[in-house]
Amino acid sequence: MLYAKKHSRTFADGSARRVLALCDAALLGKSFEEGKVVLDLKVNASFYKGEKVGEKEAEKMLKNALEDSRSSLNVVGEKSVACLRKVLPSLGEKSVKKVAGVPHAQVYRV
User: Fold this and answer.
1) Which of 15, 40, 70, 103 could form a disulfide with 81 if both were Cys (CB 3.0 to 4.6 A apart)?
2) Helix residue ranges per DSSP H, 33-77
3) Closest CA to 61 of 82, 87, 79
4) Average pLDDT in the 79-96 region?
């Protein structure tokens, strides 16, 4: 299972920005360190902990977010990144960072 959470912010000018956070459920509540880089899914659990979804639902959510020019993505974990690769096959190996072996990808639209 995965956790998916949608974040949205509307600005004074009426524009909106959205972030879809997706994380493997088994990783939530843990912290990973590699050198000076820390991926803290304990302190930042509330950013990812939304609804529990299966991989097909996650792929649908990712696809919808990619079709929305105002949305960005924050994806953590083997299963979650695999879902992202299914809907975004152009995601290169260099675009996926690993912290203590845990993959993490971000897709930003500005």
Assistant:
1) 103
2) 45-48, 55-67
3) 87
4) 95
